[in-house]
Amino acid sequence: MKKLTTTALGTVIALAASMSAAQAEKLTLYCSAQEEWCQLMARGFEDATGIDVNMTRKSSGETFAQIRAESSNPKGDVWWGGTGDPHLQAAEEGLTMEYVSPMRGELHDWAISQAESAGNRTIGIYSGALGYGYNTDLLAANNLPEPACWKDLLKPEYKGHVQMANPNSSGTAYTTLASMVQIFGEDEGFDFMKGLHANINQYTKSGSAPIKAAGRGESTIGIVFMHDAVAQAVAGFPIKVVAPCEGTGYEIGSMSIIDGARNEDEAKAFYDWALSADAQNLALQVNAFQVPSNKGAQTSDSAPDMSTIKLINYDFKKYGSSDERKRLLQKWDEDVSTLPQ
Amino acid sequence: MRASTTDKTTHPALIFWIVAGWVGYCLLPWYMVEDGLWSFEWLFGGYPFDADYAPAAFLIGQGEKIWLAPLLIPLTLPILVLGRVKSDPLYSGILILSGALGFGWLIAQGFSIGIRGFNYDWLASLFGDIRLRQFGMGYGAMICASAFLFLLTQGIAARGAINGDVFVVSAIGGVITIVTAFVFFPIAKMLFAAFVTEDGAYSISVFFAKFFDDRLWGLGCLWGARCGAAWNSLFLAIMVGFITTALGLAFALVVTRSGFRYKRALRALTVLPIITPPFVIGLALILLFGLSGTVTQYFAELFGMQPTRWLYGMPGVLIAQTLAFTPIAFLVLIGVVEGVSPSMEEAAQTLRANRWQTFKTVSLPLMRPGLANAFLLGFIESMADFGNPLVLGGNFDVLSTEIFFAIVGAQYDQGRAAVLAIVLLFFTLSAFYAQRMWLGKKSYTTVTGKGDSGVHPLMPNGLAIPVMIVALGWALFTAAVYAMIIYGSVVELWGVNNSLTFKHYVTAFSVRFEEEGIRWTGAAWDSFWTTITIAAIAAPLTAAVGLVTAYLLTRQSFAGKNAFEFGTMLSFAIPGTVIGVSYILAFNVPPIEITGTGVILVISFIFRNMPVGVRAGIASMSQLDRSLDESSLTLGANSWQTFRRIILPLLRPAILAALVYSFVRAMTAISAVIFLVSAEYDMATSYIIGRVENNDYGLAIAYSTTLIFVMLAAVGLLQLLVGRVQIGRRMSQSRTTSQEEPT
């Protein structure tokens, strides 16, 4: 209904403008963050520029699939949000466009190094560290010790209490796998995954599902990005967030302009706007606890304090490449997932 | 001679389609207008010279898209025959020639030249690498294509096919074309995708590598590891088929052959699963039986047991699917159980069979077609079900979810999705075939024209008691689950904070009254209106296509009718996920480029739900005596007039059934929809999936509950609108309910 009125209105305005060929500016945004944040970004950009935004929210895997399927006839203009790996992969396949934004001076180094490792086809917009969270009620009810390190999760008493996503279907879980390989070395990292496999009660399809299950009390421990765990705790679920003692990997949420975008100028306008401090401050309104890439943007008090977390030197270039990814996933498929639990 | 028949040679239909062809060619934008089918901004955006909006004639005038020029020949030719009579061989010959030529050329150029120039290397090497490109067909091309198609059918009719009946030939041609375009073409495209390697070449070994995958056919569950998705799906579907058939039979027996009082309440149960959005049952089960579910906690405390996650996996999916599909089996079986002729049972009893023997040797065997149908429905629904395994599956992978994650997951493997889809399709089609084989050629006719005023005997007691217990127990369980759904929509945060609130309804459906009118501020309105609009557009189209097809199948005979029937029923056996995947593959590129629009949703609904319209139409049409048509034809009406004024009014129950079913299915479908929604056209179900993913159960359930009530209202409204059949019968004798109830 609303759409119909807008169209009718648009027609009238177009008539009034005495058939000028100028069309209303518009932008198709593919968004891979949570719904509220996506809505807020779309409306915020409309308010800031007057450009109409059409927004679709899908997970980063789904969006990547869609961009790839549409590659011969791109429908989207900008892809904002979601973990960096699919963005890097899209860059590797030439699905996204090179663009050097004038906003770069305001960004953290990690955001720019993300761009440089992809030939400037993508850029970091936020980052978040990997970790896990547990349901305090369930932990107490089962008389389990409080875990603090990655290796704690291998203890036999946690059998059937740990949940993580399937690395084949989730970027979060792939980051977990790649982080373990980088923290412990490849052999020991896979031994860790095998040990963990024995305690896993379910490999979920979506990356943040494990902590949501823990929040609802359907599982005890969920391996996820820490900001997702914080969001559950803030929503009122009995969740405690853990930054593992051995150190941990992290993701860089990214943004890319789709190659062959139909509204390229608007896409660049969005890109620059999304890197500004004002745009990144919107995250605070929707309980998104990632660390923004603009140095001037604010961080929430509830957000995990990145300065106290031991971050590893995550090699995005190597572990984001599709060859390495395929190799690790295949190894995980063959050596880990087939083991009896 | 020709002069004497001038008034018979005006051929209004022919003139109409010739004009339509020229309008499509010279006046309407040839290519898809990017802003959407219903927006008319193009009228002011540089039309008719702007290349995006120009009609074909203007494009050629500017020296572009010259490959459209040959279409002028088949457009001009039919004008030559305007003065001729139909029986003139030149008339039919020229129409067939121009129709076939135009249609064929349209298709050939559409497939050869795509967005990036020539689609085939041999064409590029033949003509050189010139810069050619074109987008998907728009109004102009579509109307031109229809014009050519109907010129062709008029030519064929003029040759004497189907007694020269233009309407029937055109209807057959139309249905064949759209079924080919929207069922066979995408499925074929998907089958090909299974053989494509990563570099885009075709190879049979790729198919086998993906087909003989351990994740598909592994039998690890026999020794503690995991089984492949194919076995899981098959095993689950067989179980669900058996259990729902057994439960459905129990319900049907209670309703027809027992002294149970509240039969109406049991019948009302049948409506529930049809109007229940996906996930809802799964969510309610989690809230009841999950690790922190109400029931689990209660029993854990009562017996001091450790709660477990038993629900996640096969048991949960099985329970959810049984809840969802038992009423469908009941719906199928009740007709059959009622239809078994009491005279046969009475005859058996007269021959001194006791009640148990009668039931076992007479009643039960006569129910075989119903049992087979119910099993088949349960089997197919379970195979195609997407929502329940997604929510409750745990580590229990089934084909439908695997297909989804092969496409959207990080692995992104369309080939694998296509292979999985083929396996799924193979299972459902085999079940379809097996059912036909099992029923064989035996006669199950029990409803004859002769008076049959007997009364069904009651069930034998040994059977009645367990059947009653099972049926009532299950009915109570269903009621409890639905009560949970309503309760779940009004609590703050399930399990954490159980205080009652309307918060979720407010978030989803709040409105603000301002000076300019109502502002729909709720989060759900956008997807809600889109869903209603799409469902409202799709429903009448589905009913129309379905009924026309049914008319052709029951009233006309033509060569290839069996293949035609198979084609129209095929989309019923194809699970939604398969349709979704194949539509993406087929319709993202020209000539038919409709992904990301509302049109693709409407079309997918039409072809998903058409078989129901066809079946309902066939069932009611076979009850109408042919003498009605014949008398109409004898009185000088043509077959279109007969269809519109005689048959259509008598088909109201079938129309209602098709309308209701397709409307409701369009609102609750998820498996195909999830692939086809876009920024502008987000559907309610895909919005709900997003809320579920986000742990926002309250909002998801509140939205679903609202949908349930909206659909109930819509069903009632449709019933009012379409009205009831007025058959001049004395109503005193019997309440002819079977005619009036929508099924």
UniProtKB/TrEMBL annotation, chain A:
<dbReference type="GO" id="GO:0015888">
    <property type="term" value="P:thiamine transport"/>
</dbReference>
<feature type="signal peptide">
    <location>
        <begin position="1"/>
        <end position="24"/>
    </location>
</feature>
<keyword id="KW-0732">Signal</keyword>
<dbReference type="GO" id="GO:0030975">
    <property type="term" value="F:thiamine binding"/>
</dbReference>
<dbReference type="InterPro" id="IPR026045">
    <property type="entry name" value="Ferric-bd"/>
</dbReference>
<protein>
    <submittedName>
        <fullName>ABC transporter substrate-binding protein</fullName>
    </submittedName>
</protein>
<dbReference type="Pfam" id="PF13343">
    <property type="entry name" value="SBP_bac_6"/>
</dbReference>
<dbReference type="GO" id="GO:0030288">
    <property type="term" value="C:outer membrane-bounded periplasmic space"/>
</dbReference>
<dbReference type="GO" id="GO:0030976">
    <property type="term" value="F:thiamine pyrophosphate binding"/>
</dbReference>
TrEMBL record, chain B:
<dbReference type="GO" id="GO:0055085">
    <property type="term" value="P:transmembrane transport"/>
</dbReference>
<feature type="transmembrane region" description="Helical">
    <location>
        <begin position="463"/>
        <end position="487"/>
    </location>
</feature>
<feature type="transmembrane region" description="Helical">
    <location>
        <begin position="166"/>
        <end position="188"/>
    </location>
</feature>
<feature type="transmembrane region" description="Helical">
    <location>
        <begin position="528"/>
        <end position="554"/>
    </location>
</feature>
<feature type="transmembrane region" description="Helical">
    <location>
        <begin position="234"/>
        <end position="256"/>
    </location>
</feature>
<feature type="transmembrane region" description="Helical">
    <location>
        <begin position="90"/>
        <end position="115"/>
    </location>
</feature>
<keyword id="KW-1003">Cell membrane</keyword>
<dbReference type="InterPro" id="IPR000515">
    <property type="entry name" value="MetI-like"/>
</dbReference>
<feature type="transmembrane region" description="Helical">
    <location>
        <begin position="135"/>
        <end position="154"/>
    </location>
</feature>
<feature type="transmembrane region" description="Helical">
    <location>
        <begin position="697"/>
        <end position="722"/>
    </location>
</feature>
<keyword id="KW-0813">Transport</keyword>
<feature type="transmembrane region" description="Helical">
    <location>
        <begin position="654"/>
        <end position="677"/>
    </location>
</feature>
<feature type="domain" description="ABC transmembrane type-1">
    <location>
        <begin position="230"/>
        <end position="435"/>
    </location>
</feature>
<dbReference type="InterPro" id="IPR035906">
    <property type="entry name" value="MetI-like_sf"/>
</dbReference>
<feature type="transmembrane region" description="Helical">
    <location>
        <begin position="12"/>
        <end position="33"/>
    </location>
</feature>
<keyword id="KW-1133">Transmembrane helix</keyword>
<dbReference type="GO" id="GO:0005886">
    <property type="term" value="C:plasma membrane"/>
</dbReference>
<feature type="transmembrane region" description="Helical">
    <location>
        <begin position="66"/>
        <end position="83"/>
    </location>
</feature>
<feature type="transmembrane region" description="Helical">
    <location>
        <begin position="310"/>
        <end position="337"/>
    </location>
</feature>
<keyword id="KW-0997">Cell inner membrane</keyword>
<dbReference type="Pfam" id="PF00528">
    <property type="entry name" value="BPD_transp_1"/>
</dbReference>
<feature type="transmembrane region" description="Helical">
    <location>
        <begin position="358"/>
        <end position="380"/>
    </location>
</feature>
